[in-house]
Amino acid sequence: IGSVDEALSHINGGGSLSEIKPSILQETLRRANAFKKRPGGVLEADDGNKYALRSSSKDFEHLHASVASEVQRHLGLSSSRVAFVGKGGKRRSYAVDAPTLNRARNLDDAAPDEVARMMMADLISGVDDRKSSGIGFVGESAVPTTVPSALTRLSELKISDRTKESVSAMKPVSGDGMYNTYYRELRDAQKRSFQEEIQRLMERAQEFNFTDYKNVLYRDGELSSAEKTHLNIIQKIVESRIEVLARSRDALVQRLEG
Predict the structure, then answer these.
(1) CA 64 → CA 27, 152, 187, 201, 219, distances in Å?
(2) Cβ atoms within 10 A of the Cβ of 156, count?
């Protein structure tokens, strides 16, 4: 979508922001009276859909947010889509879907299969520090909110380390973490179901085609050369983590049990 008028028509018809060129999306979001302004910097389109505009506080934060969203949705979660805004660079603005979330509920209210999906997505995409506040609910569905990845601003040495990282070193399932606590409180039958879901998700994760996803961003994302380089780094880490997890089901279960 290459014009502001087309973009507005697309948005008000319920279309995804990610289908709009970033340079055009920037102009569209700036247009006066195009959106209703809501508390918290949220913009509401004529069709009622809401969006939040964010500035990257770390280098390539927008890329990691996009990757995390893609992985989450691939694994079956209701995750907000990420759309890049404006000129390419290390600290680019981005927009995310901003549905009204029920924050009164917590992780304990989420179904075991949804928690398993969130855990696997966080392990794959390097989201090490998700707290219970990083989850909301839309109806009965748990929705992971955007949480910064620990994979931003990695040195070459750390990149090498992260591609070789074993399950025992992955922070989301360490000690008394959120996922460990949730798992330990499940009944035996629920634990067996959780383990079966882990196996299914490992198989599903292996079907994630990062190259196809990357090619779409290369084509439509108006990426800078620095963004392309960093996206290739993320690909190496994500694909390595999927490979490690796929052969480490028992080690992951042991890690959850502590």
Answers:
(1) 24, 7, 35, 21, 18
(2) 8
Residue 138 three-state SS: strand
Backbone angles phi, psi at 134, to 5 degrees: -90, 20
The residue length of the chain stands at: 258
Task: Give the whole-angstrom CA distance, residue 176 versus residue 185.
Answer: 12
Chunked in runs of 10, what are the mean pLDDT values of the chain (258 residues)?
90 90 93 84 90 92 95 95 94 94 90 96 91 89 86 60 77 88 95 96 97 96 95 93 94 91
pTM, to two decimals: 0.91
Neighbour tally for 57: CB within 10 Å: 9
Question: Closest Cα partner for 67 from 157, 150, 129?
Answer: 150
Q: What integer pLDDT is reported at residue 32 of this predicted model?
A: 64
Other beta carbons less than 10 A from residue 58's beta carbon: 13
Taking CA atoms, 153 is separated from 10, 157, 170, in Å, by: 35, 11, 18
124 φ, ψ to 5°? -70, -40
Helix, coil or strand: residue 95? strand
The answer to whether 220 and 21 are in contact (CB under 8 A) is yes
Q: Which two tokens stand for residue 12?
A: 């008000």
